[in-house]
Structure to design on (602 residues):
């Protein structure tokens, strides 16, 4: 079943203890689409400026991502982000950000994408997320992400968006800020009261947590030792999770758990290189190998 | 098989967002012994001052803990700790500490305890840990804890102690400080180079990690929502872990994993009350119930 993602396409400059890269391919929609494409067909919606070389999307097209929803906007410039990671690299420090095209109106959703059944609305203004959602009325599963900026500055708009979506994926700091609860299980339950049927709380190097009306699931991270650059890790986690769900065509308890396990494994691949390099190289066989290893690493009697 | 613990017996004053308690029973040996006593017979070695009411150890004696290694030292005063927790309560801030009897010489290990096969040396000066270890030459399994103070100020002594022990239990910050590695799997492997056959790295609300020559195990925490006071959580985790190992009489890969699962579950009970209240009320049936629930909460396909 087709999966649609709306999100950013950007050029990143990233500094980590392992080195620095400049103007590399990044953005939430890019990481999400590449990760999801390991499991299903993906439709991508996003906007770039006329400074963007569309050839950069080659690796996505090779993996079957439909990029016909990528708008090249005349007179605009592409989103650029400059971030830095230190220490355990759990959080990025933004050195500089140029929203450029992202600060303008949202890209249109092509007519031939309107029948998408599975949808991920990557982080952006909650009003834009709602505008996207309203154009995707045939979606069986709408999942969104958000960030501190909107939780703090657009709480009412965000609440309206949360009433529309079926799932919310966010990190632990965001979950605490959104709900005012420090305990993450309690925070997850509070999120369910805001609308979503499930909340996936990402804990960086500590894995993730699923809270839904009928489940509580603890997903440890696949423990890679080679953490080069965590950029895109969360969006890739979401991409693999939703990609697997779409590939199964529906959402039950076991599928959501299995999907998060794929998310955890794919996120572990992403962090092993700068930009999308490791994600482009990733194979289903490697995902399966890590999945089996992870299942073994959490087993006890 | 008998399990011996050396550690502190103290009177704690603790402030958390849930309230304040004063001069309640605490100390690493107390939490460890109570937790371990859910699984095996425990021998406790520690010193208190003449201000200590031995009646306070009643709950330990009821659970079969042999307290004949508790020295009441004339002219000395009992260890007192005053700590405060805020936010997610992952770390205590020490408001005040009076080492009192702990700053003097170590208590003797009674002759009838010298044949102990399983031993836990709770956090203290690494020279004292070594003196204890040398008196317990029949131990099949020697495990110790440590803290930042010794890692920073007694690195050589600590290294000597680590060459003597079979296992090290410590928290993630200590593991990073000891090894200079931010990645916890890498830190665990570095610890193995210092002597121990296994390292258990505790991550507070995020669970724990086992690194040994033949295993890598991810232990998520039992997700309690009722976190009242985390004091003693780490020592109780160690107590239940070692208690289970001692009850099985030996240490293989599956036993160590199963033991850590018991540790995780018992730690989740400890945090649900101040002091040792919840630990004293804990039953094997409740431990088994949580174990089954935890196994279900980490399962994926």
């Amino acid at each position: 079943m087709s999966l649609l993602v709306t999100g950013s396409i950007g050029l990143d400059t990233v500094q980590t203890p392992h080195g620095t890269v400049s103007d590399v391919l990044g953005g939430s929609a890019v990481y999400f689409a590449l990760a999801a494409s390991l499991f299903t067909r993906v439709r991508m919606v996003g906007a770039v400026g006329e400074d963007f070389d569309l050839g950069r999307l080659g690796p996505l097209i090779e993996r079957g991502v439909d990029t016909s929803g990528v708008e090249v906007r005349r007179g605009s410039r592409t989103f650029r982000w400059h971030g830095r990671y230190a220490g355990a690299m759990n959080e990025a420090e933004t050195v500089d950000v140029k929203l450029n095209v992202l600060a303008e109106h949202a890209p249109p959703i092509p007519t031939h994408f309107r029948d998408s059944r599975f949808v991920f609305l990557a982080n952006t203004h909650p009003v834009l997320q709602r505008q996207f959602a309203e154009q995707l009325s045939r979606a069986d599963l709408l999942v969104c992400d958000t960030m501190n900026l909107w939780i703090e500055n657009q709480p009412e708009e965000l609440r309206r968006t949360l009433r529309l979506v079926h799932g919310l994926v966010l990190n632990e700091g965001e979950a605490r800020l959104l709900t005012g609860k420090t305990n993450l299980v309690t925070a997850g339950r509070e999120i369910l009261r805001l609308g979503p049927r499930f909340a996936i709380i990402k804990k960086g190097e500590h894995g993730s947590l699923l809270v839904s009306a009928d489940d509580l699931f603890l997903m440890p991270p696949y423990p890679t030792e080679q953490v080069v650059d965590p950029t895109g890790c969360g969006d890739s986690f979401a991409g693999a999770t939703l990609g697997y769900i779409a590939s199964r065509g529906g959402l039950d308890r076991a599928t959501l758990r299995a999907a998060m396990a794929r998310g955890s494994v794919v996120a572990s691949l992403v962090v092993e290189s700068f930009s999308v390099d490791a994600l482009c190289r990733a194979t289903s066989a490697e995902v399966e190998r890590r999945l089996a290893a992870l299942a073994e690493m959490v087993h006890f009697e």
Q: What stands out?
A: The CA atoms of residues 125 and 150 of chain A lie 7 Å apart. Chain A has eleven helices and 13 strands. Chain A has a mean pLDDT of 95.
